[in-house]
Q: What sequence folds into this?
């Protein structure tokens, strides 16, 4: 029986590289693949025909198949990035293969996990075994999925985005309040709670409650590592009602209980 998923084998290749000032990369012949890249540090200037685009730290860039182009460090001594080359078959994309993105296809203002995805793809590509090849391709598909979401959300009314950001800042400064309510955020955003939750999830990729718990355990981590406060004191000061709920949330986020996390850090 024909394997309809053969296009996923040995296709996505993640790699890490950098470009120094005055030493650009020049494609001397048309590229035979498409590329996505995440800028880790610095700024990258991409030039193709009459097109010029600057991709900064934390942003994602896209290069189409068939491009003859120039890439170099822009306004910095060196730009470093993680990239992935791919050329999916016609089973998934049209023969030309190009995706519907601009060169700067994610400006970094939406909180999608591009950095961690590119790092994971790089780790899997370095393994050079069949399982890792498939996982790397899965990571690429996840990146492309987020880029599609990114493109759709970029059309969102900017006023709504600013209202959400205002609520997030309030959440950050009040996350240690045990009686904090998500409904307060919808009031600050001047939206219905249902609409607030929907837009928040689209922007941050998680529920407001999950984001709140993340803020709390990250604050607790700082206290665990830098104070002698008991786990109970830390739990209560970070907005948790009891040690059990704190320990459960902390372990889910960091993989260790608060006690074991503190102990392991002290033994380093």
A:
């Amino acid at each position: 029986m024909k394997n309809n998923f053969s296009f996923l084998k040995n296709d996505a290749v993640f790699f890490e590289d950098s470009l120094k000032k005055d030493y650009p990369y020049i494609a001397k012949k048309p590229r035979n693949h498409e590329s996505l890249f995440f800028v880790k540090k610095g700024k990258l200037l991409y030039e193709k025909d009459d097109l010029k685009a600057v991709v900064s730290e934390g942003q994602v860039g896209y290069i189409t198949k068939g491009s003859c182009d120039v890439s170099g460090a822009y306004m910095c001594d060196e730009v470093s990035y993680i990239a992935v080359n791919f050329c999916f078959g016609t089973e998934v994309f049209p023969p030309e293969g190009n995706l519907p993105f601009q060169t700067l296809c994610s400006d970094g203002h939406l909180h999608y996990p591009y950095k961690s995805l590119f790092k994971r793809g790089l780790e899997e590509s370095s393994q050079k075994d069949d399982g890792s090849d498939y996982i790397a391709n899965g990571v690429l598909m996840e990146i492309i999925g987020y880029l599609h979401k990114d493109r759709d959300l970029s059309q969102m009314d900017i006023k709504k985005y600013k209202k959400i950001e205002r609520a997030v800042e309030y959440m950050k400064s009040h996350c240690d309040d045990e009686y904090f309510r998500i409904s307060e955020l919808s009031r600050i955003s001047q939206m219905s709670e249902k609409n607030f939750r929907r837009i928040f999830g689209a922007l941050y990729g998680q529920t407001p409650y999950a984001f709140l718990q993340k803020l709390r355990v990250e604050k607790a981590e700082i206290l665990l590592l830098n104070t002698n406060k008991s786990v109970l004191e830390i739990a209560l000061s970070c907005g948790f009602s009891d040690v059990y709920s704190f320990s459960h949330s902390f372990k889910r986020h960091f993989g260790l209980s608060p006690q074991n996390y503190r102990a392991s850090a002290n033994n380093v």
